[in-house]
Amino acid sequence: MGLELYLDLLSASCRAVYIFARKNSIPFDFQFVDLLKGHHHSREYIEINPLRKLPSLRDGKFILSESVAILFYLCRKYSTPSHWYPPDLHMRARVDEFMAWQHTAIQLPMNKILWLKLLIPMITGDEVPAEKTEQMLAEVKSNLKLFEEKFLQDKMFITGDNISLADLVALVEMMQPMASNHNVFLSSAKLAEWRMRVELAIGSSLFCEAHDRLVKLAEWDCSTLDPMVKERIGNLLQKFK
Amino acid sequence: MGSGAWGAGRARPCGRGPGPLSPVSPAWRGRSAPAMGLELYLDLLSQPCRAVYIFAKKNRIPFELRTVDLRKGQHLSDAFAQVNPLQKVPVLKDGDFVLTESVAILLYLARKYKVPDHWYPQDPQACARVDEYLAWQHTALRRNCLRALWHKVMLPVFLGELVSPETLAATLAELDVALQVLEGKFLQDKAFLTGPHVSLADLVAITELMHPVGAGCQVFKGRPKLAAWRQRVEAAVGEALFQEAHEVILKAKDSQPADPTLKQKMLPKVLAMIQ
């Protein structure tokens, strides 16, 4: 059995791993774990990852979770071109710095927009108080400003002239709110231009393919949602309200 | 900005420029490479600062300690914003190169100073295990330990903000879950979190756990596996160094209450930090 990647491309972390593997022609079996059907709670998947999160990697007996760890592992094992995770001490540190910062500064807030603007209203029928959404959007705006000022600055990509893992992770996460019709790139020409560069470096067709499921999320018929899954989501939603 | 801002008692003058530390112009201000060696801007009250401090000391990495007193709001000063516009610690400054995020700093130090392999192994699978822990902890154990300290001690004692028993109970329950994952998924029956040897994962984890310990939470009670692991990590780091790094957090409940101006400045940021 070759490399297996357990993914649902609705998740930004999964898209980062998927795009990276495909871009670098890393052969793998795509094991689809349907988040919308609650398959991450299935007995089979719990054996792979008891924390029930995506993505996971399985390489023979070796199982790995956490997209950042998976990306580094793939870089090393498949000796991908060095610009993805540059050997230069300072450039590499910049990637590490972004990868650490993004968990709470980008990924979490971008997901929150999706939940507040699309999923909560869709699943529960409740609108989220406008005040909460405003607060959330303000936080996102301020973090994107930090991203531009600290990480991007006047460079083409985060580490300089070439795309790295940091750009890939940043972009897939910033795409997350698109599913709720919220385009963070509209507010900044610099960000929009960086986005185009990253997409081109990845390849537009691969990028679009990876985001297809996300952009169609609003079409999902959530009436078919398993009541147990709905309850779990309800509990999760308390955190956002 | 007073002379005490950078812990004048601890920052050592570099011996160049206009002379010993002047009250108006701290030695590090306005300097660029190669005048200064490695500088670490830290407050040992902070978990990630403790990990960086212990790692640097344990590996005999020479550095200038720049104390940024969080409880005096020094991280919010204009002067510190020059060092780190994100207004957080720890910060590493190596000549002109400025780096934030403790995980990035630890990896930078490990690579630059070629520390023993066990801290961040060359073996791809062993390394991946460390990466996995370091990624997971940001939104899991880190968050829960931070909330435990602030809800139990720092909000009431330092900022004079009442925390309801329900909020505290919920926070401690979440911490409990994170501890179960730490033991059940990461530690299991191994000597250390990612294998037979101490690594960055253990260092980051133990310094996090000392946060609720400093708040008076008995995190190791009823968890003999975790308690045994703690002993091993302390021994690997060196007991004296471990004690030294944790002196400040263990006295957290003796924090002087913040004055109203500082409280006003800090409260919204603290609430955002621990959400």
Automatic annotation (TrEMBL), chain A:
One of its GO terms (biological process) is glutathione metabolic process. Keywords: Cytoplasm, Transferase. The keyword Cytoplasm applies. The keyword Transmembrane does not apply. One of its GO terms (cellular component) is cytoplasm. It is found in: Cytoplasm. Belongs to the GST superfamily. Theta family. Conjugation of reduced glutathione to a wide number of exogenous and endogenous hydrophobic electrophiles. This is Glutathione S-transferase theta-4. It comes from Ovis ammon polii.
UniProtKB/TrEMBL annotation, chain B:
It comes from the Eukaryota. This is Uncharacterized protein. It comes from Ovis aries. The gene is LOC101111664.
